[in-house]
Amino acid sequence: MDLSYTAAEEDFRARLREWLAKVLPTLPDRPSPDDWPGRRAYDLGWQRMLHDAGYADVHWDASPTTRLIFLEETERAGAPYVGANFVGLLHAGPTIAAEGTAEQRARWLPPVLRGEEVWCQGFSEPDAGSDLAALRTRARRDGDDYVVSGSKIWTSHAEVADWCELLVRTDPDAPRHRGITWLAMPMDAPGITVRPLRTLAGSAEFAEVFLDEVRVPVANRVGAENDGWRVTMVTLSFERGTAFVGEVVACRRVLRELARAARENGRWDDPVLRRRLGRLEGEFRALWRLTQWNVSVAEAGGGVPGTGASVFKLRYSHARQELYDAAADVLGPDCLDLDRPWVLDRLSSLSYTIAAGTSQIQRTIVAERVLGLPRGR
Amino acid sequence: MRFQLSEDQQALQAGVRRLLDRRFDREALRAAVGAPGRLDRALWRSLGEAGFFALRLPEPDGGVGLGLPEAALLFEEAGRALLPGPLVATHLAAGRVPGAATGETVVTAVDGQLVEWLEAADVVLGETVGAVAMRSVDPLTPLHRVPGTTPADPLAVLLTAAEQLGTAARVCELAVQHARTREQFGRPIGTFQAVQHLCADLLVRTEIARTAVYAAAVTADGADIAAARLLADEAAVRGARDCLQVHGGMGFTWEADVHLHLKRAWLRAARGGGGTQSEELLAARLAA
Question: Are the C-beta atoms of B74 and B90 separated by less than 8 Å?
């Protein structure tokens, strides 16, 4: 068991830290959460800076440990999040890199890395969320095109995306997990309607996407027809590996800020609150260790994350909610004021036990796939 | 960074598990429950021979020359096996109290307001004047209460957390085994989502406790140790309760071993000032 880093890794950390200290003060102000075009421009601009400095493909080509250091340092320095580039960099990009043809890789990957194109994710549907295999958006073949009709939901960045990684049903008679195909759909194609969805946090975080006879060239299919489920699972396992590294670092920073705020407003003298914050500090220290452990497993296993991802997601998503509940106790009555820090974070933390597989789905995965309990119904 | 067990550490873990399977199997466990207060000196000496107490002593001093991470693995196995006796105190006394390293001398120590195995031990560290015997909730650990209080030793807290981790892992296995085989309504109860989710939570708590304990053993940092104890106490205590729940009515009997795990987990959770002290330590670190 070793928690130290190699000389090369420490060197990477030092160079990154130096670069961040130099470029972060030159960044423009962050756009407001509802300014979608502004957010697109800001996020793409950040990606372009990373590209020019040689950090663009850290999510794809670097070792898991290097990626861990990248996420740790960027978060610690207060660098922008991956934002609108999330799907392109962490999802569609790796999928195309692993499963696409040489031509597809040449067409789609460089613009993602250079910060020129935004992708969105067309997976979930109103009746197919956690049960993704129940998706119903259908595509029929017509010459060199697929003709797609149906609707998608919870699609982040749909309003400003250039491309959508779209899962469609190409064989309605096949078993649920078969008969699904992965397509790259241009978002400016005729027949696409995007309707923003307002979340309980008040902002339009994502959208509903309606597809009415949208023509997508067959050449945009990644992987074989009806093989989209397997293609998708390849990327989902990668996504879960280090997706939350930056967030754990951020939560630990928030905890220190909460301690400072509590000392300033006198609530620190309340032993119940103080111990609660102490316990959360223990929790997030442990979550950081679990992250390091999972990254080490991924490193040893050739980059593929193990079952630790579900274990981590279950614990982290609840811990994050407890963190912002504790923040409300630190704030007192101010926790009802949307203009105060942490109040919006508390609202958005409610999505963590739902998104990317609810806690209930994750527990079933752990019980059946990790512990080997007999399959339930 | 290679935060994984090395091959040597895996071999050590497997070796200790084999030794304890052989020297302290279920029959021995139940015999010990039937003879409360009696410490098995032969077992203690064979632990000494296996290097249990001398593990961290340098080789020139007759020790094994290993470190805290290896000691954590050892105590995890002791926790799994529900091994009785003042193991932590004797381990920490090796090299300081003659005979402790070899298992010839049984050493206990005052911890907070409690002292375990006071009458069976050869050497007691700490002030025991005015000690009063308690009717211990754990049939495998005699307890005395002492006036005054001794501060927590961080290493004792860490090794206790490792024992708790072992208990957490063991009760998770017991729950899963039972859920696989016990049938109700015509099928294994492990097919029921409510039972599946209890078992999943058992594993999640165990795995986060594991990385916290192992990391604390590597860094030996006070806050890491405090975090490890909080997570390990939770994993052991809640784990044993959930395991008992999965066992249903049978879990509430003296014959099932689940209660022994739960009672030991409660007892260990009281060591080193209890969780409150660890929470305060972490809070102080946050505010620093």
Answer: no
d(C-alpha A20, C-alpha B168), whole Å: 42
Confidence grade of residue A32 (pLDDT, cut at 50, 70, 90):
confident
What does the block give as tokens for B182? 């016990």
- Rounded to a whole number of angstroms, the CA Rg of chain B reads 19
Amino acid identity at B78: A
CATH homologous superfamily of B7-150 equals Acyl-CoA dehydrogenase/oxidase, N-terminal domain (1.10.540.10)
Residue type, B209: A
For A94-112, the pLDDT digits (tens) are: 899 889 999 999 999 999 9
Contact of A248 with chain B, judged by CB distance below 8 Å, is answered with: no
A230-371 homologous superfamily:
Butyryl-CoA Dehydrogenase, subunit A, domain 3 (1.20.140.10)
pLDDT at A301: 73
CA distance, residue A212 to nearest chain B CA (Å): 39
Region A84-97: mean pLDDT is 91
User: B69–A1: do the CB atoms touch at under 8 Å?
Assistant: yes
Q: Which CATH architecture has domain A119-225?
A: Beta Barrel (2.40)
- A residues 277-306 near B, CB within 8 Å? 277-279, 281-283, 285-287, 289-290, 292-293, 295-297, 299-300
Spans of all domains in chain B = 7-150, 154-287
**Per the CATH hierarchy, to which homologous superfamily does domain B154-287 belong?**
Butyryl-CoA Dehydrogenase, subunit A, domain 3 (1.20.140.10)
Please count the residue pairs, one from chain A and one from chain B, whose beta carbons lie less than 8 angstroms apart: 174
Cα–Cα distance, A372 to A266 (Å, whole number): 50
B128 CB-side CA count, 13 A: 19
pLDDT tens track for A292-330? 998 888 888 765 555 688 899 999 999 999 999 999 999
CB A197 within 8 A of CB A159: no
The series of mean pLDDT values per 10 residues for chain B, 288 residues long, is 94 97 96 94 96 96 95 98 98 97 97 96 96 97 94 96 98 98 96 97 97 98 98 98 98 97 98 95 95
Pick the CATH number of A7-114 from 1.10.357.10, 3.40.1550.10, 3.20.20.140, 1.10.540.10: 1.10.540.10
